[in-house]
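User: Fold this; tokens only.

Assistant: Input:
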Amino acid sequence: MLRTPGIHHITAIVNDPQVNYDFYSNVLGLRLVKKTVNFDRPEVYHLYFGNKSGDPGTIITFFPWPKLPKGRVGSGQVGTTSYVIPIGSMDFWKNRLQQEGISFTLDSRFNETSIQFQDPDGLQIELVERETDTDNSWGTNEIDKEHAIQGFGGATLYSAQPNETADVLENILGMEFVRQAGDYLRYQTQESLGNRIDIKLSPSVRGLAGAGTIHHIAWRAKNEEEHQRWQELLETKKLQPTEMKDRNYFKALYFQEAGGILFEIATDAPGFAVDETPDKLGEKLMLPSWFESKRKEFEAKLPPIKVQ
């Protein structure tokens, strides 16, 4: 049976690219590992943030649309994105959020306490302490490596059909059912990042796409051979996957599960160093070869981002 190792990346829609950069890079301390364009709508940026090398399981990506109306978080979407912080760093992050003027609450689920808050566009975020077998060596002047976000802890899915979504996680993606706790089902994989997915069981208002909402969640495939097997499996299960799409840093295919959430399966390779050296990731606008002839046009239309 095919089994995904877990989350590859999560992609959200926001408004202002500068506000987005300032929050995820300067407040949360993630590294901007790629500044490119939305390959399907190249008049819009596609910004990727993650750990030092942009490993799968650490990447949050954004389509910043400055004039796009606000959306509504609800069913048919990823509701909350969870990040892992090192054991013992909870107080550091509470203090940091307070210093940045960001209100937060504490929540307990599956015997874990999380810090919950929103980003400037209203995306729901939580931080949870866990042991991992990885080490994010990316730090900033204000966030040292001992407290740095390691990558995704997982995500909470707001499904319009929770049992149908659970069936896809367990019987298509190969995740293991952990247990139910109150209003949530939990599934997990064997990885230590991007590995725990919760499904909220209670009804939620219907989600509306727009700024401040998650566009899709992507699951990992080891390589292109396995990616092809995923496509064949999804076709067999009548989930109507798209054709393979070349995203330059990974290959992608998409399908919508019965609960209304857009799922992607993305390859681990080739990664973000395919067109920039590892020490220069995210420093300039990178375009795929088929857009390079329009570089001046894109640079004139895209709003500038001040990268510190």
